[in-house]
Write a structure and sequence with these properties.
The protein is mostly helical. Helix content is 76%, strand content 0%. The protein has 9 helices and no strands. It has helices at residues 8-11, 16-25, 29-51, 54-70, 82-114, 124-143, 146-156, 162-169, 173-194. Helix 2 (16-25) packs across helix 3, helix 3 packs across helix 5 and helix 6 crosses helix 9 (173-194).
Length: 195
Amino acid sequence: MFFAVFSPSESSGVSPDAALIERLLQRDVRAFEELYDRHSRIVYGLVLRILQQASTAEEVVQDIFLQLWRNARHYDGARGPFLPWLLTLARNRALDQLRLKSERQRRREEQSDQLPAAGSRPDFEGNLDDQRRAARVRELMSALKPQQRRAIELAYFEGLSHSEIAARLGEPLGTVKSWIRNGLLKLKEGLEATA
């Protein structure tokens, strides 16, 4: 003899999803987890089919379930089963994402169309000024004490910290800091004198 065992919701004619939604309205986290476990794969499949990009599809699925958590009251069981309603929500959200992506792409294209053409005239005076300034910096650097010049080169051209410079040169940290500070002051004074 066969005995059917029904959960309370099934025996009363309420679908399992509708029962979970009722619990979700009471902020039952376990009900949310059950809904997610039951439907996240099918929702992800639909969204991925529309968006064709896994990372974006994952984000959209998270948004859909977050929206479900916040707005479960929008589901009306009298209008139909839960899963088609959820899949419609997912489809709409995925299509919104596609529209947003195409709108961003369109704006980028419009902006690139509006960019002014690059100037084709060379800036001879600017280039000459840059060359003169670089030559002056090289001249001033060569006038520094060798240890000051080496410390500044390590800091600005090799990107080492003061501690790394001290370790590399085998000098105390305070000494290295003084070399760099005093060397930069001399460079500044020399550049201001020629300006």
